[in-house]
Amino acid sequence: MEQSFVNDLQKIVGEQFTLSDKESLAVYGYDSTPELESLPGAVVLPGTTGEVARVMSLCHGAGICVTPRGSGTNLSGGSLSAGGVVLQTSRMNRIMEIDEENLTATVETGVITSALHRDVEARGLFYPPDPGSMNISTMGGNVAENSGGLRGLKYGVTSDYVMGLTTILPNGELLKTGGKAVKNVAGYNLNDLLVSSEGTLGIFTGVMVRLIPKPQAKKTMLVHFPELEQAALTVSHIIAARIIPATLEFLDKVTIRCVEDYAKVGLPLDVEAVLLIEVDGHPAMVQDDAAAIRAICEKHRCSFFQTAATADEALKLATARRVALSALARVKPTTILEDATVPRSCIAPMVKLIQETARKYDLTIGTFGHAGDGNLHPTCLTDERDKDEISRAHQAFAEIFDAAIAMGGTITGEHGVGLAKKKYLPKLVGETGIRVMRNIKGAFDPKGILNPGKII
Amino acid sequence: MGYEKLINCMRCGMCLPHCPTYKETFLETASPRGRVALVRKFQEGDLEGSERFLDYLSLCLDCQACASACPCGVNAGELVAEFKCEKKDRDGLSFMEELVLHWLLPHPDRLEAAAYPLKLYQRSGLQKVVRKLGLLKMFPPRLSRMEGLLPHLPAQPLRRTLQEVTPAQGEERGTVGFFLGCVMSLVFSEASFATVQLLSALGYRVITPKAQKCCGAPNMLASDRAGMEEMARFNVELFSSYDLDFIVTDCGGCGAELKKYGHHLEDDGQAAVFSAKVRDISQVLVEGAALLGQRLRPLPYRVTYHDPCHIAHCQGIRNEPRQLLRMVPGLDYRELDDADACCGSAGTYNIERPEMADRVLLRKIDTIRKTGADYLVTSNPGCLLQLKQALAKTEPQVRVIHLTELLQASING
Fold this sequence. Notes:
The complex is a heterodimer. Chain A contains 16 helices and 18 strands. Chain A is an alpha+beta fold. Chain A is globular, with a radius of gyration of 23 Å. Chain B is an alpha/beta fold. Chain B has four domains: 3-91, Fumarate Reductase Iron-sulfur Protein, Chain B, domain 2; 95-149, no CATH class; 158-285, Rossmann fold, CATH 3.40.50; 292-412, Rossmann fold.
């Protein structure tokens, strides 16, 4: 990148927050996506909405592309640059307001998700979305990717909470959408359009989210199943019994084996599935729900059922699920974590298909995830240096995504399309879908300078 | 260095919120993930080891909070340290490093003699005069900073006054070797004396071999692996000549290093046996909790605990010190926010990178202030020095004390 342009960037955000040395660029060439890397020409860390606007307007004028980045935990290559400027939002990290009358929180884009959790929960309030990376992911990134998490089944995902956005458009203009009014039908719903736009339509600088009261009580249960189908049926039958658990997590036997090897939590190796179930709400309802769930699990021949009596015990029961990714990731150097998602009723056939596909391509794939909302994480344990195995892994995932689409599901439940899933998107949304998306992109970013090459 | 270890990083970013330098800067180059990537790119030939490259790496405090957080078991701090060692093997030590690491540290007598002028400086009143007249401003900044960190030195190092064998009180449970750290002996002799008293009170015969040398951790800070290995071999041989149940230390830094001897000296079977016997004092005290509990008398203090990196991250010891503090009757224990975040001392880091060290320290001081505690307990001399000096300036009501000193105070009532 030309030094004069870097100097112009420096004039806006300051020398300290403009990086163009070789070493810095090298480490801004990746996010959390395996295999993918692409070096930017410069990195800026603006501190205010005004600075973001000026950076965008400068780049727009010069025709230089910009890629927004929070903490760089994207799993679909969405925060990889296309050679232009990477704009890191981390410095804009103030929680501006928690409005206890309207039950909203207004934050700057770089606020860490779990920091918001801590602040609102201290006031008896609750912001449910809890992506796996919540200790480092930014709120702006969560909105851009429409992040989910463990509580999706009962509480929904990020889009269910976004009430307002402050966005800098590709030409540097400021767009404010939504607000504190619960009902708002004025014009197109631009909030919803911007959520999950993966940094291709605008850069969020402010986010306003809806809060709800914090549930009073919680109960955690751990259940083992010798048969996969029975575990899957249990999930469906819990919902059919009109019980919506806050968490309904699943581990398959590959994951169980890895967890046991790594953490020795006492899981038997002959079970096919483990479910971690959490119900929350009014204490009386939590009690009733837990009893009903126990009856359903027993009817489906669970081999083990434990309810945590204390908060410490609950933490212990959740260990297996909590360490699942660590346990899998330690087996081999490269971990490809996917998020194929199917309707809840298709959990059993999907898990079976993943297991058969792994056998067919001679791969180790552990599956865990959010059984309650059908969002599974088939995780391939491989080694990027083994080109043959990597190529088999890609073939296997292509088949898994095809199957997810055929079952009425989707290629990505929460990681986004970015670069990694781009080639599968047309299969899912069709030619018309792609054309509409292109037109939307063109309306926001006619010069195509904002996070180019992503999604479509 | 093992390329294997580098490619295990899956770049998930779970280390970022735990890294003190990332929290201060938000820069990827100042994050564990970024450091692993830098070293990897150096090995792959994409980056040369330029001055700037080394400067980025040396911003690492090596607190290893990232290792505690990493899902894949990557230890970025250790990888950076290994990289620096390999570079040092090629470049060689500077004259000063040679002097301190190879002439001074391996010989406790020389080390104690070197501390003598400092003691004279304090006792003669010269320190008071220098500070009062603001003469420090005339010192080079680095020296003036070091002067500020000078603790009050006890009259005699513990190594000089402690008996080689301290008998067990009551029924003998076993024999332990006491590894007396250099700084503990020179500066915190009262705390280490309390450690020996506690061990004896729990029924341990305590052997403190007088010939023991520095653990070698300072050598590793200067990336001098050969120097460390020499100390390690000496200490392993020395302690192996006694019949010991455990080798106990009350210095987090020494404990972390001693536990790695087996790994450092792979060819030496005795080193692995030595390392397997090493215990932090809190681990031994927890085992004797029932007996200890009977002896503890009420202390009416508000207390909080700072986890030294070398205890929490390097040795994985978090519960034991808290469990011991909770046993003291009358003690109002308050948990510190981010208790296991580095205090910024980090060996010689606070002298090498004062600006970043101060930013990291400031965060720690803020969290300590918020607890309202009047005693801050910790168990590593680096943290004790750093926090004593800093709290004396801004929060003089907070006393800084080693875990064993507090427990001994409770026994004394």
